[in-house]
Amino acid sequence: MEAAERTVHWTGEHKLKLIVASAIVLAVAGGGFFFWYSLNQQDQSASLELSQAVRVLDTPLRPAGTPPQPEYPTFASSQERAMQAHKAFQAIVAKYPHTRSADHARYFAGVTDADLGDHAGATRELEAVAGSHNDGLSALAKFALASVYRGQGQNKQAIELYNALIAKPTPTVGKAAAQLELAETYVADRQPLEARKLYQQVQKENPASPAAQIAGEKLQGLR
């Protein structure tokens, strides 16, 4: 009873402090909810803009010498198409930097950088996405980054990335896909014996599959 009385007495003396503290807790909780709600709304908007930007990459190319038709969007070249898509992806990253869609937009920005010949930009964007906590997106970024490395003659870095993807396959980048690309890198690096081993392994692990068929064709080309 004495302890209860002391508690009541302390509460009475510190009532104002308790009210203020409660208000602060509610304000923080409310701010957290507002931040979550705002971020969720941003991600929905970013997702819509991302789908629109991705559709740019599917826009057909018109034959040389054919004038554009406003009712049927087309591009004169793949470079023109990649440039417009790249601008859209960059805009999403800048406008919605803390959303999941921004991470996907950054991946596509890196891919279109590579298409446009900006290997430094592609490397910068893809390396950033490769560190993502989203395993599927991270794998895609590593897969694309390895291709950029290989295109620049940085075969050692490409080989490291492909081996990492083989060791930890994901639904977005399967083991066989990484093995086939690694074998191609070995061919480019003048290591045909290593490439042959990988092609044979793909055939053994994936019989009667498209990957096995590709591996078989590549093996014939090594002879």
Q: Can you describe this structure?
A:
The chain is mainly alpha-helical and 223 residues long. The chain folds into two domains: 16-117, no CATH class; 131-223, Alpha Horseshoe (Serine Threonine Protein Phosphatase 5, Tetratricopeptide repeat). The protein has helices spanning 2-13, 15-57, 78-95, 100-115, 119-130, 135-151, 155-167, 175-188, 192-205, 210-222. Helix 2 (15-57) runs antiparallel to helix 3 (78-95) and helix 5 (119-130) runs antiparallel to helix 6. It is globular and about 50 Å long. Residues 1-37 have low confidence and may be disordered.
Layout of helices and strands:
Blueprint: H1 2-13, H2 15-57, H3 78-95, H4 100-115, H5 119-130, H6 135-151, H7 155-167, H8 175-188, H9 192-205, H10 210-222
Features:
single chain; about 220 residues; mainly alpha; Serine Threonine Protein Phosphatase 5, Tetratricopeptide repeat; 2 domains
